[in-house]
Amino acid sequence: MHNTDSIQTTHAGSLPRSPELLAANAAMTENPGDPAAFEELLAGSVKDVVARQREVGITFPNDGEYGHTMSNSVDYGAWWNYSFSRLGGLTPGGVDRWQSTEKVRSEPGKIRLTSMRDRRDRVRFDEAYNDPNSFILTGRKAVPQPTVTGPITYTGQEAVQRDIAHLKEALAANGFETGFLPALSPGSASRIANEYYKSDEELVYACADAMREEYKTIVDAGLTVQIDDPSIAENWDMINPEPTVEDYLAFTQLRVEALNYAIRDLPQEQIRFHLCWGSWHGPHTTDLPFADLAQTMLSINAGSYSFEAANARHEHEWKVWRDLTLPEEKAVVPGVVSHATNVVEHPELVADRIERFAQILGRERVIASTDCGLGGRVHPQIAWAKLEALSEGARLASQRLWG
Question: Which part of the chain is the Cobalamin-independent methionine synthase MetE C-terminal/archaeal domain (predicted)?
């Protein structure tokens, strides 16, 4: 996790899928056809995307999340939706959370998550979100979410072993020693309709028990697991009316404790935690400030922390690290290019962003990354150009920091 003579480069997980893989994903969902042919295409696609990462200068790659089915070329939710096929106890649903008109209001002393359509950012900019010509949700395909109707269990053993095998084969073919695979956090996995568990705590811990199996399998294979957990930051905007920060952090503490329970005894150096405020393209004026979340994030027993630090809503928050204490053995993985804009960041700006963190935390503990996944959020040409800019910026920063 620590740099020796240059800044390492990585990204937050999702990378653009090829048209062939998107078509195969759709075919497997609607008509399974030939599973062997699909596996051959998937394995080759992972090998290609790892090679592409090497070509653009990524030093700590992954499989592009190609094992997580993407519904369309525009897809903000594959990081989460993949879990629906890997968890037992779920009954397929008919409502997409972005389309649901349900309004759930919190009450004094009881925080409840509302629907995506009733989140505060969307309510405030209702005209923009409902404009069919708006860039905010253009092209997104609806994906219904399931309901918990029985005990949650992990059923994805074959799928995660497939992901591991494809990535390890691709890493070896491209000269990499190791890489990472993203996996859903308990707090995010539990953000579905529940008709079985009696309490929020029971549901979250059931998800923790189930998802632990995926985390452990990835770590035991010698890879790093990235815990994708927007529930820590993004839930803030899904609570209506706005709670106090104190009440929200108390609500969030359950998610943190469940995650620490799920990763207990696993080597921290193989665990990367990813914090974000949601990947959708919107104003984000109701995001909770990072300063209010930083200590909570650091209480998660991960070896490194990935977070948004490049987009216009959060770039200024690098200054928060002046007042934080990061244990010596840990590292930060700040976003230095953003998924939320089509503008390709200049390498000089990327280098400046990297140096800010290096000057506070030390050059050995800063790994350059993206704010969030690029796949399904920006056009493939732009996504790869952003990764090139990230790598070039890291090269410039390395020259300045090591001489």
Answer: 198-381
Is 14 inside any structural domain?
no
Dig out the tokens for 71 from the structure: 């519904």
Q: Would you tell me how many other CB atoms lie within 10 Å of the CB of residue 254? A: 17
Q: What is the pLDDT of residues 162-188, one digit of tens each?
A: 999 999 999 999 999 999 999 999 999
- The answer to whether residue 88 is domain-embedded is yes
Give residue 361's domain range: 19-402
Contacts of 100 (CB under 8 A, 6+ apart): 115, 116, 117
User: What is the spatial distance between Cα 240 and Cα 232, in angstroms, rounded to a whole number?
Assistant: 16
Which residue has tokens 């799928």?
Answer: 159
| DSSP state letter for 175 | T
Burial 37-68 (b: 16+ CB within 10 A, else e): ebeebbbebbbbbbebbbebbbbbbbbbbbbb
pTM greater than the 0.85 cutoff? yes
Q: Looking at the 3D structure of the chain, how many domains does it have?
A: 1
Q: Tokens 């990297």 map to which residue?
A: 354
In a domain, 27, yes or no: yes
Of the candidates 246, 262, 111, the residue with the CA atom closest to the CA atom of residue 191? 111
- For residue 168, give the CATH number of its domain: 3.20.20.210
**24: helix, strand or coil:** helix
- Give per-residue pLDDT as tens, 66-100: 999 987 888 888 999 999 999 999 999 877 776 76
Other Cβ atoms closer than 10 A to 157: 12
